Amino acid sequence: MDMNRKFFVLIAIAVLGLVGCQKDDEYTGNGIRFSVLSGTEGTKTSYGDVTGTGTAKKQRIDWTIGDQIRILCPEVSAPSTLYQDYQVTSVATAANGNSQGKIALVNANDEPLQWNATANTPHNFYAVYPSPANRVEGYEVYIGDGNIARTAIVFPEEETLIDNVTETPASSGNYIVTPDTKYLYMMAQTLGLTEEAAGTRQEVFLTFLPVSTAIEFTITNNFSSGGSMNVQEVFLNSSAPLWGVTKADFGWTGSKPVFSTPVSSETLSNADDIKKTGIVLGSDTKPLTLAYGKTLTFTFFLPANADITNLTFGITGTNNTTHEGFTRSTAISKSDGTPIVFGAFQKHFVKGILVPEGATWIVAGDVSVTPWTETSVDLDFD
After folding, report:
1. Under a CB-based contact definition with an 8 Å cutoff, are residues 290 and 232 in contact?
2. Could you state, in order of their start, the residue ranges of all structural domains in the chain?
3. Is the pLDDT of residue 381 over 50?
4. I need a labelling partner for 141 at 20 to 30 A (CA). Which of 134, 270, 286, 332 fits?
5. SS3 state of residue 197
6. Which pTM does this prediction carry?
7. 373 CB-near residues (< 8 Å, 6+ apart)
8. Is 286:162 a contact under the CB 8 Å cutoff?
């Protein structure tokens, strides 16, 4: 089995704990100033370049200008919400090749997080991407009872990404769907930080790790007639929930964020209707025509509560030779027929799926599993 392991480098956010306001050389008051490494609302976080070879391959997750993060700290003296939203205002490439940028308050008139005036108070900082503000309905991150950071993370039943389909390279007949990375949830935390003397910089690295499982598919039109298809939707089925809301305490085990303690019964259930999730890629007014032998690549973001097994891939569309609609589905398994386990918090690549004109599928390859790894880099405050 081909197991070309690729690694994702997660860009860390460095938090500079400063007493200060507008300029880097002014330190007055108790405002905590945050500076980040490496995001407008329209572009959001994106996958970066692949570097290295063999088992040393890495692919970055890059910030883009306007990306918004929320930073929470239950010990701060202000604001009363105990959190504030920041956004990336500029992006550059660091000497080590990582994406880096600067952040500032989303609303310059808002009150920044403030150090607690009580000496030696340990501060616990939590951060999430994306910020819940104006993002996904039902998604929230907040400080609950007992000063515990809590989350409610939402995954969609169906996405419509018709406008995200791009012929790549141009005129090649192959298509890539840019994923909506608002579902690429990431978390970071740094615990027990105390304020240093006024005028000194204290760096706190908040390394962002994913709390979603990503599966990237590349499929090929394998119609026996050599004809084309119009792709309408791709979908997944599983024995476990693939969409819905999961609520949990903000927790960490070793190097992985986890949904440690559910705080309500409003978690992902086992109802059959949440075991299927889809992505709409074409319509009557904007068809996605895939010619014989051409490929289509797209990504699903799924809950990372547990590993995913017994996964089925499906596609609906129209045969452009017969002008008949069709739905095809196949279990995703290894070449020997055994099920594949899609590990939580990882990105997986599924290649070699040949979409048939009839009912018989040919899955020509295996799945390569790609763990996410992290790094951290300093940035400046805007």
Report:
1. no
2. 6-374
3. no
4. 270
5. coil
6. 0.81
7. 7, 8, 9, 10, 58
8. yes
